Amino acid sequence: MSRIVGIALVFVTFPVARAQQLPPVRPLGPIERVSTEPMRAATTAVALSDGRVYVNDVANRRILLFDSTLSHAQAVADSTSVTAKAYGARPGTLFAFRGDSALFVDPASGSMLVLGPDGKIDRVIAMPTRPGAPVAPFVFDVLAGVPGFDRRSRLVSTMPVAVRPLPAAPEPGKSYTQQSADSMLIVAFDMVSRTIDTIGGVRVGSFRITSAVDANGDVSSRTVTMNPLPVEDSWTVEHDGTVAIVRGHDFHVDRLGADGQWRAGPKLPFAWERFSDDQKTALIDSSIAAIKARRDSMAAARARVGPIPATAGGGGRSDRVVVAGAPGPALIDGRPALSDLPDYTPAFRNPAARGDAEGNLWIKTTTLEHGQAVYDIVNAAGALVDRVQLPQFRTIAGFGPGVIYLAVEDANKVVHLERASIKRK
Q: What is the 3-state secondary structure (H, E, C) of 310-351?
């Protein structure tokens, strides 16, 4: 079921009229350097003080360290079977550590690698766990929020909120509805005492699953209803260790002070656009179609692999052997009500917030100009000070002093890292 939750929905973003009080939208400064090392992804870039930069090539499962010109790269961690620099079997997360070092989280092994300024793995730290818990409770995923270390040197990330599972022995002929949590906890892990403190929370998109149980006590069908346009919060750990949350319901920034108190910034100016029932209906239709297309593609891929013996588990009886890839409970696309969707287009969709090296927060908004997204730049006081557009087809990988690192895919599906000046020269 987790594969269903992870489906990237197609959604409609509607351009909004620029309000009088908004700063003009400007382009970035010039692109100064472009990498030549072939990559398949560049999800995160961590800049060092001398201009070198660590990059997470997550699709190739490797960490690269580029020189200051982006001309040369060395593999610091990779996934080949003949090296001791193991990346891990699953995608990992990279973010800044103390000084000129980075931290790489390998969820497969439950370990965190400290990458030093010399391009070597300095040491390995066990991932945080709660007492008695078999696995780490943290969610390390830049799509959910950018983890990092706060001003007290605690590792900050998110933790899911527990949801009541389907009964182990569901009653025959009954239907059960499970609602996913609509929030996540922001937690801080003390690396010395290994204690975990809850420091805040963020609103996230949710879904519900209705499981129909047949006369034999087996789950015969599951109806999955997802909201294609949730009003969410976006969060990040900024360059100086400040934890920042962008609140989606009224578009303002909350920041956690050094004294442990949250302080709300002013509401940010935004040209809110009414989201009509016709627009809601069109979005629901396109989202359901996208989910079905993805599911059909996955089913076709499983069919090509063929049957694999496996033991049944989860939902219904588990005392029999089934064949992996054989038909399971029917999946039904539930249709959300129009009232489930907001009456105004949200100011942003996740992932949205990234902190630069100057203490500003970059928020990718739903505002479009000439077909491209506009980034609102908010200073430490919570005020909107600038609005920027990236060059076409670029995504933000990270920041350095006065510069931004971008990822772009060329016509041959090769990903490059670019360094651009934030200000026009």
A: EECCCCCCCCCEEEECCCCCEEEECCCCHHHCCCECCCEEEE
Instruction: Write the single-letter amino acid at 168.
Output: A
Q: Label the pairing between strands 25-27 and 53-57.
A: unpaired
Q: Is the dihedral of CA 209, 215, 218, 221 positive or negative?
A: negative
Weakest mean pLDDT among 5-19, 24-38, 244-258, 389-403: 5-19
d(CA 76, CA 82): 14
Distance CA 291, CA 4 (A): 8
Total-model pTM = 0.85
* Alpha carbons 220 and 236: distance in angstroms, whole number: 41
* Nearest residue to 87 via CA among 119, 71, 64: 64
Distance (Å, rounded) from C-alpha 394 to C-alpha 401? 19
Cα angle: 234, vertex 17, 395; to 5 degrees: 40
Instruction: Give the integer Cα–Cα distance in Å for 240 and 76.
Output: 26
Evaluate whether 146 touches 234 at the Cβ level (below 8 Å).
no
Nearest to 258 by CA among 150, 103, 380: 150
Torsion angles phi and psi, residue 229, rounded to 5: -140, 65
pLDDT, tens digit, 9 for 90 and up, residues 196-212: 899 999 999 999 999 99
Domain borders along the chain are 2-43+142-421
